[in-house]
Amino acid sequence: MSRRSSKRSKWLIVLLLVAAVGGYWALQPGGVLRKSSDPTAVQSGGWKERAETGDADAQLQLGRAYYEGKGVVQSYAEAAKWYRKAAEQGLTSAQLTIGRMFENGDGVLKDAAQAVAWYRKAAEQGDASGQYNLGLMIAKEQGAPKDFVEAYKWANLAAAQGQPSAKELRSVLEKRMTPEEIAEAQRRSVAFVPKKTR
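^ thats the sequence. predicted structure below, dont judge the formating
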């Protein structure tokens, strides 16, 4: 018997034993096979247990699992709960997603001001998508007062990082601004220093 088929045989025996014992089983992070009475914890790859202990990365992954319905029953409300927890710990990808959920009303009440608040948190950490989304919301007067100087600042910062839609937004704003306003927005862009929370 070859070494490869021997290894395959061992895994087959393990799987048969697991099936015979019953319950919910899953290969957890780190390669540990574990039984659980919670099918959600198992189906979501073991992220739930870690998320419940405050692990921001696990909270993000669990939010994504619920948002996409991968390994769990799809639930925007449950996704929002976990994305928010990760966002509160400073994960920009979670901040962007919960911001988008508030902007669109996915699993939460539609709330442009909340969307702006979450986009701002990501933007202030230097995230180009957060900067673009924040600039766009301010330019459209959604969730924040219209302020072309501030909108341009955020679009300019995002464009400097290669965010293609930000370049277009910046061009649109330039057509509506005075040279003095553009100069002020550029001054604010140069003075910007990202905050790091993680």
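The longest strand covers residues 24-28.
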